[in-house]
Amino acid sequence: MRVVESTQSWTEADNGGICVPTMGALHSGHRALISAAVDHGARPVVVTIFVNPTQFGPNEDYARYPRTFDADCELCRETGADVVFAPPVEEVYPGGAGACYQPTLPTVATTPQLEDAHRPGHFAGVCQVVHRLFELVRPTAAVFGEKDYQQLCVIRAMVQREGLGIDILGLPTIRDPDGLALSSRNAYLAPAQRKRALGLSKALAAAADSERATPAQAEQAMRSVLLAHQVRLDYAVVRDARTLMPIDTFSEQPARAVIAGRVGTTRLIDNADVSR
Questions:
Q1: Same domain flag for 110 and 218
Q2: Could you give the 3-state DSSP secondary structure of residue 63?
Q3: pLDDT tens across 172-231, in order?
Q4: What span, in angstroms and rounded, lies between the C-alpha atoms of 169 and 148?
Q5: What is the pTM of this model?
Q6: Residues involved in catalysis
Q7: Does residue 179 lie within any of the structural domains?
Q8: Which of 116, 254, 267, 271 could form a disulfide with 241 if both were Cys (CB 3.0 to 4.6 A apart)?
Q9: Same domain, residue pair 8 and 125
Q10: 8 Å CB contact between 127 and 152
Q11: For position 55, which CATH number holds?
């Protein structure tokens, strides 16, 4: 496995493979993404490690975001990655982010009441950095986790709008045995907070219960569980799984429950298929 920190070390042979974009602090969920990339068959398997400053809003955790580069490289090596691409900010944004191309935000990025309402500018940063990394790595496919469900929808829409011709693969959320979705931010949780954080997966289970006949009933069930677990809620809603627009009834169209909230100072997100 090669570790590449500059595009000057990038070769033509590194193009055309499959990319796993990450911000580092890799865990078992990332291991599953890399394994899926290896199983896909395209080569090389390129894991990017870049903590992107433009997707962090004011008062968010860019400075304290965990950075574990040596351990990350070892996980990539063990899992079968061919290249770790870990560029500095000036490689990704020569002349600054403002001087680099900014893709038009897809409609799904600004769906009412979801991430854009609570983290304005976040998806602009995500679209910019993913587009830029794809320019540098030039993959034919890329793997993302479904845990960041709206992000996955946004990236798929951006890739289609920009005509990038990259196959975006979504991998189901990886969870600990107790149901907590794996996240680099789980490291911020004290033991008591971690127990409270289980409210997210329990709320999703309540929403998936077929006894909840309408999306409104499923949303109320989620809010009740989250309140009992002292999760400070940003949103807990049921949406059309493709557009993330509100729905009034369950139908043949897939439905997704999406949650965001805080336990202590740590913001957590989760989601699940709640189609009937």
A1: no
A2: coil
A3: 999 999 999 999 999 999 999 999 999 999 999 999 998 899 999 999 999 999 999 999
A4: 13
A5: 0.95
A6: 30
A7: no
A8: 254
A9: yes
A10: no
A11: 3.40.50.620
